[in-house]
Amino acid sequence: MKASAVDRGTLGLVALCAIVVAIGWMGVRPSQQVRMRLPGQDGAPETVSLKSDVLAVPVPGQPVAGAGVAGVTDGTWTGFRGPDGGNVVTETPTLRTDWSSEGPDKQWEITLCEGYAGAAVSSGRVYVLDYDEADQSDVLRCLSLADGQEIWRNSYPVPVTRNHGITRTVPTITGPLVVTLGPRCHLAVWDATTGKNLWLKSLVAEYQAVEPRWYVGQCPLVDEGKLILGVGGTALLVALDINTGDVIWESANPRQWEMTHSSVVPMNVGGTRMYVYCGSGGIAGVDAESGKILWDTTSWPVQFAHAPSPLVLPESRFLVSSGYGSKVGAILFQVSDAADAVDIVKEFTPKEFNSEQQTPIVYQQHIFGVRKRGGGVLVCMDLDGNEVWSSGRDRFGHGPYLIADNKIWLLDDHGTLTAVQANTESYEPIAQAEIFPDGHDAWGPMAIVDGKLILREMTRMACLDLLSESEPQD
């Protein structure tokens, strides 16, 4: 049967409408991409592509003076994990834990941009690499240890958007200089007293470095007068002259590993000094004098991301850990006597030990660390990785910790500080106080100088006086 003219017209109109709808649908950009989320991804891109805004080296500004005056202090906290990189203070006054109901005395508190950047301290000055969202600039702030007032600030322009926070690194102080590594791979050296920028370079422009998933988390290492960084790209590690930025050596990168959030650590094996670094595809040991790769291994399964630094142990051993693997949480390695190979001593399941962000601590011939599995349980292990005790139901999440006055000071995710006796027999909590009401993501590394504990949550940094007696409460 033949269709009528009306039927044909109706069919034609329907087809035309369908075509219009299809074109409109294809032209509409979806407001949200649909893709598989990985644990802990928090919306971060798979990789951060090289962009023109970081290929150009920014021009630093001039120091801007504030009203602050340097405090008085005998001690220093020269960078990530303290003066010797161990996160332990052995010589310190007795730190009080007989707090009032309000907790330890809070000497000062300031507001920061979102992030986890920690403090370095020297000569009564506190240095923190912050970000100014209004000016779109990385900004190095020099604060008074006494009251937190700003002594000076200096900055350079770089566009950064929130990517589960912005800032992540700790400055490194060496003599009269401060070294910073910004979220988008900008390396800078500043005069510690005046704030003048001495030199600045982009690791993306110079080495084709790839920004890590959540921006840069690596903290600069200064060792034996050299500035050491894990770069990726055209060089796995580089050693620079700290005064000029000139290259001392560049190591090869035959496996084309990329930069991770992990920091470089020095290690001595026999008469050989090396730098141990966790790249995106494994771990390498690089000769400190020449930059030659002494050994590397792909046995460490870097999955999704890697943040903790290698933990150097006695007898040429080191421990690496992460929080993203479902089968392997940590591995204990041993470097050969000839310093040219590594062997696996022990593999840990995530149930035995893993750590997503913080690096464990060696103290009294034991390892103290917070295990991610189970919500952040504090554990004490012997040097072979056998568990001695755990904190059981007491959980600390991803927060930082350090050891001072034979006590472990832990900050949990929400900004609650706990003091625990650092012994190798049992778990003994001593005191606890909420430092940041309504705090969250309190993950930035802590610093302690002369009984002054500096710690932070997502947008606030505070200095606690652990020497003074808290005022009694009515």
Give structural notes:
The protein is mainly beta and 474 residues long. Helices cover 7% and strands 39% of the residues. The protein contains 3 helices and 34 strands. The strands form 8 sheets. The protein has a 5-stranded antiparallel β-sheet with strand order 1-7-6-5-4, with no helix packed on it. The longest helix is centred in the N-terminal third of the chain and has 23 residues, at 5-27. The radius of gyration is 25 Å and the shape is globular. The protein starts with a helix and ends in a 9-residue tail after the last strand. The relative contact order is 0.13.
Portion of residues within helices: under 10%
Strand order of the largest sheet: 1-7-6-5-4
The tally of strands reads 34
- Radius of gyration, in Å, reads 25 Å
> Which segments are poorly predicted (pLDDT under 50) over 5 or more consecutive residues?
1-50
Q: Helical element count?
A: 3
How would you state the average pLDDT, rounded? 89
Beta-strand share of residues: 35-45%
The first-to-last residue Cα distance is: 98 Å
Taking the sheet with the most strands, its summary is:
5 strands, antiparallel
What class do helices, strands and sheet pairing give?
A: mainly beta
Shape verdict: globular
